[in-house]
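DM from R.C. (forwarded with permission)

"hey, sorry to bug you on a friday — could you get me a structure for this? deadline for the figure draft is monday and I only need the backbone to look sensible"
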Amino acid sequence: MSQLKVEFQESAAHFTFPDGIGVSLGGGGQAVVATGVDLKNSLCMTAHDVAELSGVMGDINDPAVYEKVADILNQTTGIDAVACDLHPDLHATRLAFQLSERMDVPLIQVQHHHAHIAAVMAEFEIEGAALGLALDGYGYGTDASAWGGECLYVHGDSFERVGCLKPVAMPGGDAASREPWRMAVAWLNDEELSGRLFSEFPVKVIQSLCDSENRSKTTSSAGRLFDAASAIVLGKTTAAFEGEAAIALEKAAAGAKDADLFSYQLEQTGGELQLDCSEVIFQLADAVLNDDTGAGLSQAELSASFHKTVAAGFADLAIRSAAEKGVKNIVLAGGCFLNVLLNEQVTQHLESAGLKVFCSQKLPCGDGAIALGQAWVALQKLQKIQKLNGGHI
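My reply, with the result:
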């Protein structure tokens, strides 16, 4: 059994995590436990005006990590609510359901990217509304598709998806995150070009998956867009770990002396502003396939141009959305912003437009801070319920 004892009492909150991060909530609040997500699991516990986020405990699919997390939650008493992710198949979600049932308290599910943005809002005590760019590899969307390139208007416990990266097929589902060439095929949507780039792979089969709506998921993931670019420019057709292809692309871009801006499109689709990077990917493929003399753009220059264009595109998406919503505070969240080049370029665009940019400083940039965001959203919801019910939850 874990030696960590977790209790909430009326007079004070007694909880501590080794290597935990304390965050002031700027006011009173109920006792909430948030269970985070699976891959980089952390827990968050709140009471009164304090939230404490545990260090990243690891992948909860590992039996040892699962046992540690379950043990902590089994010791938890005296809480008002439990918060978790929307994804129904996560171990972290199932554990939250069990704790909610055991304690007979409300369960509050929070969309992944809403939680990403909320974590930064909690860190900087941002009040009122903010616009957030949440860029990562995957998060379960409200439409059950794979989100990951999101522009959200966040106001407390609610959010509106005002923009996103244009969704494309994710052929083979999770296999596409392990084999970046699949995402290149999806973004190119051109069997002849893809066949020339990836002749050693079953391009025809993957293109067929992309063409069949019933056989392939879709994704708006920025992480998968970086995978596609890495597969084309660097030949990174497989990935041994999360973010490997994107990390290689950032490293390659650091060696560039100059970078051209490729073309991208912003299109209003179904009430959302979508960033279409199809032309970016096509231009990368064209540069690689037609450089017969070796006098064209280098891998470093192509990688840098990709970063420059994607940063400009997402910044443009946020600037237009911020103007429409009348907000000045912009939050950058999600694992893609560990990419220093992307982070700096997006920030520069936004600040040049007169916007105030917030990005995690003491919190993990990726999923390690999701639990704090879940807890923060849950507290906003509980406070709203209290007001409606005359002080009762």
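R.C.: lifesaver. The first strand starts at residue 7 and ends at 8.
me: no worries. The two ends are 33 Å apart (CA to CA).
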